[in-house]
Amino acid sequence: MGCLFCNIVSKKIPSAIVLENDHALAFRDINPVAPTHVLVVPKKHMTGIHDATPEDGEVLGAVLLAARQVAHDLGLEAGYRLVVNNGAEAGQSVFHLHVHVIAGRPLAWPPG
Ligand code: 5GP
Ligand code: ZN
């Protein structure tokens, strides 16, 4: 079985891909919480941000820049939110690092 998002990266499991580059893949969330809800993942498996090391800096930068590119490409100028849940108590349910790109409705602060 393995990691769900590794299987999406390798395209064993299909997804609605929005952007792909050497380091990152962006695809639509299967259960969107807003009109736009995209996930950006590193192609390299990393469990979560808490497990990242300084050696992961290039990949992490590429993931954030890919999220920014998604926001540009999808025309999210009105505003968007990037979310990284780390750990079950914070709501992480897939243990392959991902950045949520959420937009298309007013977003409350603080988050729940
Ligand atoms: P987390 O709760 O770990 O921060 O976010 C995991 C996200 O992955 C959730 O928003 C969930 O809807 C999404 N997700 C879970 N399984 C799949 C899947 O098979 N395909 C896609 N595209 N998204 C998924
Ligand atoms: Zn993985």
Task: Please give a structural write-up.
A hairpin with a 7-residue loop joins β2 (24-28) and β3 (36-42). It contains 2 helices and 5 strands; from the N terminus they run αβββαββ. It has helices at residues 4-9, 57-73; strands at 17-20, 24-28, 36-42, 80-83, 99-103. It is α+β, with helices and mostly antiparallel strands and 112 residues long. It is globular. Guanosine-5'-monophosphate binds next to β2.
Short description:
The protein is α+β, with helices and mostly antiparallel strands. The protein has helices at residues 4-9, 57-73, and strands spanning 17-20, 24-28, 36-42, 80-83, 99-103.
Helix content: 10-25%
> What would the average pLDDT be, to the nearest integer?
97
Number of domains: 1
How far apart are the termini?
32 Å
Gyration radius, to the nearest Å? Answer: 13 Å
Bound molecules: guanosine-5'-monophosphate, zinc ion
Low-confidence stretches: none
CATH architecture: 2-Layer Sandwich
Keywords, separated by commas or semicolons:
112 residues; alpha+beta; HIT family, subunit A; 22% strand; binds guanosine-5'-monophosphate; binds zinc ion
Reconstruct the topology from this structure:
Layout: H1 4-9, E1 17-20, E2 24-28, E3 36-42, H2 57-73, E4 80-83, E5 99-103
Antiparallel strand pairs: 1-2, 2-3, 3-5, 4-5
